[in-house]
Amino acid sequence: MVLPLSIVVSAALSIAAPPISTPPPVRDSIPYQLNSPSVIINLVSEELKEISGLSATDVPGVFCTIADEKGEIFFVDGNGGGAILQRVLFRDKGDFEGVEKVGRCLYAVKSNGDIYEVDRWENQGRPKIKEYETALDKEDDVEGLGYDIRTNALLVACKGNPDSAYLRKIYAFDLKSKQLSAQPVFTIDPLDVNARVAAGPEDKAHFFSPSGIAMHPLTGDLYVISSSLKRLVVLDYATGKILYAARLDKKILPQPEGISFDPAGNLYLSSEGKKGEGLLFRFDYLKN
Q: What is the pLDDT of residues 51-78, one digit of tens each?
């Protein structure tokens, strides 16, 4: 099935966020019941077994995703049991960790920080591909890719070494200049995360290390997930400060690596599954 050409921009990012001058709001809780997903989809396709990265599209319930070890983007129907609607192959091999759809272009990032721009993919013909090398490398271990609608830039989140407590870095890749920021635009202190969410007896001796990032379409906050320690952190866009941190239940999300939103603010997380099947979850937005 070929998706209509009307898919031109990620709907979850089409709503303007509050102005940067807005002071950080108070967060004493997160507006989601993270232990109670409203929808759980088992992605039975073997090709989505190692699902990594998640991006909304203009079609309600349809998401872009990517799997490790191959440069192939999948359009997945979240309303139709996770059926694959379309595939876009742009590289036969590669450790791809994130995907984002901006306008008519698809973007994918490798763990070494290289970014691929995929255009003219709609009719299943041969897509137009551009590769951008960045100053990042394998040691940075990029795992998260999101879109910053305020600055028209991709947010590139580095996992780093989960055994070390140094600051986790998020860079911006400007989509006009096609340049990566020389310095991180956001940082996360793993020790601050630990202070907010104490380690439990079941937790391994690791630190928060980003595996996915997305901007909330209604509040403008940045949501960052970590497969290591199974945590979710909310950052205030204006200050970069942590507003809230929460534990993700590893029984529900064995390996959370993808995050996105729909226009109503509902949260979607993807994870590799214990039984080998990829998983897609929806968590309803609690407005009040």
A: 889 999 989 999 999 977 789 999 999 8
Q: Residue 216: which of 243, 182, 180, 253 has the closest Cα? A: 243
Low pLDDT (below 50) residues in the chain: 1-2, 4-24, 26
Q: In angstroms, rounded to a whole number, what is the distance separating the alpha carbons of residues 186 and 184? A: 5
Amino acid in position 59: V
Nearest CA-CA partner of 283 in 238, 257, 240, 253: 253
Mean pLDDT of the chain: 88
Give domain status of residue 233, yes or no: yes
CA distance 278 to 229: 19
Encoded tokens for 83: 């059926």
Q: How many whole angstroms separate alpha carbon 129 and alpha carbon 287?
A: 40
The reply to whether 2 falls in a domain is no
Domain span including residue 97: 11-283
What is the CATH number for 203?
A: 2.120.10.30
Contact of 246 with 230, CB cutoff 8 Å: no
